[in-house]
Amino acid sequence: MESKRQQKFASLLQQELATVFQRDLPHLFPGMPPGISTVRVAPDLGVARIYLSLLLATDSDAMLREIRDNTKEIRLALAKRIRQQVRVVPELTFFLDDSATYAAHMDQVLSGLHIPPAPKDEDEQSPKDEPKRPKLFADEDEQ
Q1: What ranges does the record give for the region Disordered, renumbered to this chain (predicted)?
Q2: I want to staple 54 with a disulfide (CB 3.0 to 4.6 A). Which of 27, 60, 70, 73 is the partner?
């Protein structure tokens, strides 16, 4: 469970990193800059885990590699933006957020399942008939 301090700091990092990606370092991202889905911050605010959404990227692994190679430049641009608000700029570690891809995969799997309709109940039993005992095993004979 993150504290309020961690949540506020994570929100600040998410906003400022989005601005850095769009305005300060657009040359690193040909086409569309990556979306930042989640930022998690360590309790000491020294390390930030940034989860990137690269849905529109043609090669997400190559883009993630490019971002990791330029982490120092990204951190420096971030430091210029938040230096008046924080004491220490956290170490940035970038990860690929594949939750949207996973959700699409699960939707495809669930739509491909064949689920038979539920059998209708036999409500038409007469009161004289004794209720049927449910079968517990497939090979059980009716008595």
Answers
A1: 113-143
A2: 60
**Domain with 92 in it: what CATH number?**
3.30.300.20
d(CA 139, CA 85): 73
The model carries a pTM of: 0.69
Provide DSSP, 59-106. Answer: -HHHHHHHHHHTHHHHHHHHHHHHTTT-SSPPEEEEEE--HHHHHHHH
Element spanning 111, H or E: helix 99-111
Assigned domain for 80 exists: yes
Helix (H) or strand (E) holding 9: helix 4-19
Residue 119 carries which side chain, given as an amino acid letter?
P
**What's the pLDDT tens digit per position in 19-47?**
999 998 888 877 778 889 999 999 999 99
Q: How many CB atoms lie within 10 A of CB 36?
A: 19
Q: Which domain holds residue 31?
A: 4-98
